[in-house]
Task: structure prediction
Amino acid sequence: MTASSKIPFLDLVTPHVELEEELVAVFRSALRTAGFIGGPSVEGLEKEFAAFCETRQCIAVSSGTDALRFALMAAGVKEGDVVVTVPMTFIATTEAITQSGARAVFVDADPRTYTMDPVKLKEFIEKQCSVENGKLMHKALRRPVTAVVPVHLYGQVADMDAILDLAAKHNLVVVEDACQAHGAEYFSKKQNRWMKAGSMGHAAAFSFYPGKNLGACGEGGATTTNDEAIAKQVRMLRDHGQSKKYYHDMEGYNGRLDSIQAGILRVKLPHLAEWNNKRRAAAERYNQLLAPMAGAITIPHQPNWSKSIYHIYAILTTEREKMMEQFNRAGIGVGIHYPIPVHLQTPYKALGYKEGDFPVSERIAAETLSLPMFPGLTAEQQKLVAECVSQFLAQPSGAPGVKR
Result:
């Protein structure tokens, strides 16, 4: 293992080079038709991505954050409401909640899947809420609890049957944060079938940020839903509240997806299932290579009800910083998703949470380390990654739990 053996954390170059002619044709078409905003390209993407997600509606927007914010607003979340989510997520999840006018509150993650723990959600409802006049109320905040946002973290779907059952019992809207889960699947015992991420809640949000499994060459996002009324509202929200040109039914936003990005995504979408399968194969190779190191590190857990798309392949290690140094010396790209759980981030100090409130999320945040993961990752590259981990753990200072 030498510093010359470069393995990137993510390869965004190769797929674009392979599809270069098709991608350039998208830009050329936009130049020759002046079709820059909306139009057939965006409408085509919406139809095709809805079919991919097995939903009736898809509304393309300017980012995953807008997709989630607009979905919440369209589903009826309003100023003063309480929305429940997890602290182990990217800050955009809570930005969407607070920017819709609601108050974000948290329940802890499941220690194995890192997604919302339905047991903790049930405890939150039973201990911190009460039913008043048929509505679920947060006892301390004296505000109505109206929605739940489970996050399909790292490409793995949350335990949706349990979450949806609790939500239905208390008349809560469920909006899936599927920004990392394009094509991930969940086996619903209730429906007795596999279901796509983004098709189970009242609505869902996807991000097309370049590093996602389906990424644009810029910003982009989409809201999916089976609810025609929500779809109509999101379409107006993204376009200044217009029901038709210059007729505004509400005050909206400038949240449209441009047609060039839509065209780029349409070129990539037919390849997404294959790319996801390659990620799954790479994850299985990692699992086999890293299995002998169980106990010193924790590898991702996939329940039998989940088909993850491995947007991120994250291990847990108590020696993260030192292990990262080893990877850096070896020329192997790694990352951290995410080092600080949202409830401890500066913008949310006013919410009153403190260290220790969500121990599972805090432990994951302190120990998570993302290994290289992309469709073109080779078995040989993965062997080098695993060797780097093994070499680190073989050092006396690499033993887990050792203080240095």
